[in-house]
């Protein structure tokens, strides 16, 4: 997960794409329009309040101090105080409103993207690494938090400040507005250059951080190999190389950005100097009052800090836009498994006819022209080498994928025409390993049917003979399983997984037999549970154990995507083909 | 981790030692900071004079204007340099400390690594160092800021004490509010992170368990869970926002109170004639000038606290003394030549690599012995398979032989030399271990094979690859021997990785080879290929095979049955099978575990 800091191509968005992303984000934020408008309103009040300071000082000087009128001076002081108090109150409100809108937007984004991810077919999950999907939902969305918390606000208030200041300057003195016009363009051009350079440097730094972290991680996880081969000095050198690379990229980023801060500083003071020079000239010509010149001076002093902050915001905006673009990419992926309209019958045969399958964007066929009919109540074992396609066949039978050729029907209805709801009731896949979610044992069984009562859950556990085992726990079926079910043993996790299937009580069971080892005690219980679950149900089992295969009615041997042999154990031994060879290999690898 | 000591003094000592090497540049940074301070302080003063003489008295207004501009340019230049030096030195501190940490981590004994998590060590070397870096940046900056605060206060106090009190009174409040803000925002931010972690857990389990979810149509259950977490994040974030809303505007606006005071009190003084208008304005600007440094002062304190915590964690690693080290006066292993000279044997190169475990006792935890009175003797060139159930201690044997751990009692010798008397690198070059799980580095295939000897010729690499049965698939890779491997590179199958690991061991050409069953991670259909590679390497070399699969046993000359930390029987496979009931039992259990004859199925795409 450390390697993920490395930049991806998508992080570099061109201006047009960025604009599009922003427009779309704005559309998505439509429900928060009123909240955002309130935030902008309060921000405007705050900004006006801040700008009133110099104006009040001007009034105080021209109408209070100059004519030596202490009453007017007092009025100015009171007015100043009131204005600052108003600015405080509205500034608080702007923070609260912008955060309400922003966090609401992020919440909406989280729920939508997650919902959309869940709508995708399994092929989507094969294509996208789980780490990437998790990163979209976490790091990418979190990267926008900074923008939401203060970035957007800074953006809005800086824009308001610039606009209002300009108007105010024009009102105070159009001649002195020239001061601002002399300095501002320099700052604007400089900040564009700064943005460009520092953004490139920032991407470079991120790249280096990512690869440095990878080298670091490699060193730590590889410490046993490194020590075993006595390569510590070599690896330390290797790390130093990448570490120095990181240092150089930091230094480069520093070099291309530092001058900007000096420039902003100098420009601010030069603006003051111009205000004194031009202001003094105008005052002495009698065009403006001293108060006005001083007000302009103070006003200009307030103008430069926000501009500087704004340019620092650029990187945040950039990475947020990139993150949004990736998230929109997920929202734009149309799920490729569509719901049908028919309800599946209560029972029937599973007929696979002429089925071919290839994973998207790959050349080779995983399955090619496979036809098997599994009669109602029959138990079929599917065997074959790794990569033969046997697991894929099982997945197709539960419509976790759709075949690319041929059809699979249950009771005569094509699985693609059935509603997903009725399909999940009739056909259940039990994966190899018992995968557990956070929550209690009961919660985990209930994954199969959200509305099941505790009684239903107990009945399902009882049906596979596992209830007693879990009721022994202090909190019974309400025991928390902890992360990934670490509280339970591997066998217990499989039991929970089997209980899910029992809760659904399907007509067809598709089993991918576990290859991992259990302690002998649990092994017997799991075997027993499996047996009671299969009972007289139609079962398709991807088998790894000889004992399982021997208990099947028929055996299908899949080889390189084709159905090579099909028949009972004895029939297949008799033809002395692939199955016979496999069976012999088993026999020899078992101890005598 | 009893060997750690980290009191406050030693904690800062680490940073002091590192900074001492940067003394020159840090001094330059501080001097630049002082020049910056002069430029900054001059500006308001010149502005004041500019108003009084230039505007009010109409006396050379352009001169004053020019001087202000010059001071501005100077402070601009020094602003840039101050920033550059501060950040550069901080990055350098970070870089040096990271290298020190990495070197130390690599030297630490494996017992330490077995107990600690990669993630923990990673965050020591990344986020903790960043906290220190952020603090080091503040050191020269804070020094010049402090100098500025002091000199501005002195200048103001000398000009007009009453007005100074009025103007500066709210500033300590800014500092106070800043600290209150830091201490109250911290738990709020942590609460947000906690909620984010909970959401991440839901997403992670959903993505990993997607087959279960799809299989049962349980999408809505997970969506409901996610919604709860998303709501929690929003609530926690808005709580944090409320704290920001309370403090940030206050911090921003408090200085304005000082400005109001200056206008009121200063205005009256101007009317009285005790203050000039220019001085009033320069007071105003001075107050504004102090806001940023005072705000930063609060930040420096917060960063200092965080850096202290980070240093404490880093010291815990650096203070851990590597328990497995070179002996003070290492002995060398006898070489084949001297061996043959002594014995006068007709073979010119007698095989070296006799191994002897004599009454070895060992346990990972004090109260849980793993090896008890463990004896094993292996003549040079002989191979033996260690067979035993899970927890029998058979894998521990390899870890003791290359001193990943030291035995508590008894002795282990190679060619008569106790392994503790050998320099670590010599011992580890003499013993080659092929681990159960293979680690490939982000580097080319060739470099991964030549790990033991980066200077190895291409011919040597290719020979090792051929012997390991890896050459054929390597030439089929996109860039053959130059194909990049590792997390970010080309990914190989389990069997291919194993063969690279075996080639790596062949190239190292050790006297003694330990194969921690290299077939265990491999698809059974590929198992025989690995086995034939293994037997090639074992030929004529002292080899210990730690067998996890029945098929591997046949590779070795003899078998040692390990049970409860002891060798309880030795002999050939057939002999033990015929005479030893316990051997048959262990073998049966192994086969059971191995019954995945048709192979583990992945997604079916491999």
Strand share of the residues of chain B? 5-15%
List low-pLDDT spans of chain B.
1-6, 338-349, 595-606
Count of domains of chain B: 2
Give the rounded overall mean pLDDT of chain B. Answer: 82
Proportion of residues in helical segments of chain B: 55-70%
What level of helicity do the residues of chain A show?
A: 55-70%
User: Strand tally of chain B, please?
Assistant: 10
Largest sheet geometry of chain B: 6 strands, mixed
Q: Any idea what the radius of gyration of chain A is?
A: 35 Å
Structural class of chain A: alpha/beta
Largest interface: A-B, 163 and 153 residues
Quick one: biggest sheet of chain A?
6 strands, mixed
CATH fold type of the largest domain in chain B: Rossmann fold
Helix-strand pattern of chain A, N to C? Answer: HHHHHHHHHHEEEHEEHEHHHHEHEHEEHH
Instruction: From the 3D structure, determine the CATH topology of the largest domain in chain A.
Output: ABC transporter transmembrane region fold
Number of strands of chain A: 10
Taking strands numbered 1, 2, ... along the chain, how are they ordered across the largest sheet of chain B?
A: 6-7-8-3-9-10
Which stretches of chain A are low in confidence, meaning pLDDT under 50 for 5 or more residues running?
A: 1-10
Nearest-angstrom radius of gyration of chain B? 36 Å
CATH superfamily of the largest domain in chain A: ABC transporter type 1, transmembrane domain
Walk me through the structure.
The complex is a heterodimer of chains A (592) and B (606). In chain A, helix 1 packs across helix 10, helix 6 (145-172) runs antiparallel to helix 10 and helix 16 (490-504) runs parallel beside helix 17 (520-534). By secondary structure, chain A is of the alpha/beta class. Chain A starts with 14 loop residues before the first helix and ends with a helix. Chain A has 20 helices and 10 strands. Mean pLDDT of chain A is 84; it is low at 1-10. Chain A folds into 2 domains: 3-331, ABC transporter type 1, transmembrane domain (ABC transporter transmembrane region fold, Up-down Bundle), CATH 1.20.1560; 350-589, P-loop containing nucleotide triphosphate hydrolases (Rossmann fold, 3-Layer(aba) Sandwich). With 606 residues, chain B is of the alpha/beta class. Chain B folds into 2 domains: 8-160 and 275-318, ABC transporter transmembrane region fold, CATH 1.20.1560; 336-593, P-loop containing nucleotide triphosphate hydrolases (Rossmann fold, 3-Layer(aba) Sandwich), CATH 3.40.50.300. Chain B contains 21 helices and 10 strands. Chain B has helices at residues 8-20, 23-56, 61-107, 110-115, 118-159, 161-168, 170-208, 210-216, 219-272, 277-318, 336-343, 394-401, 424-430, 445-449, 458-467, 471-475, 494-508, 524-538, 550-553, 573-579, 581-593, and strands at residues 355-365, 368-378, 383-387, 409-414, 417-418, 431-434, 512-516, 542-546, 558-563, 566-571. In chain B, the strands form 2 sheets. Chain B has a 6-stranded mixed beta sheet, sandwiched between helices. In chain B, strands 2-1-4-5 form a 4-stranded antiparallel beta sheet, with helices on one face. Chain B is elongated. Chain B starts with 7 loop residues before the first helix and ends in a 13-residue tail after the last helix. Classes of the chains: A alpha/beta (592), B alpha/beta (606). At the A-B interface, helix 2, helix 3, helix 4, helix 5 and helix 6 of A face helix 2, helix 3, helix 5, helix 7 and helix 8 of B.
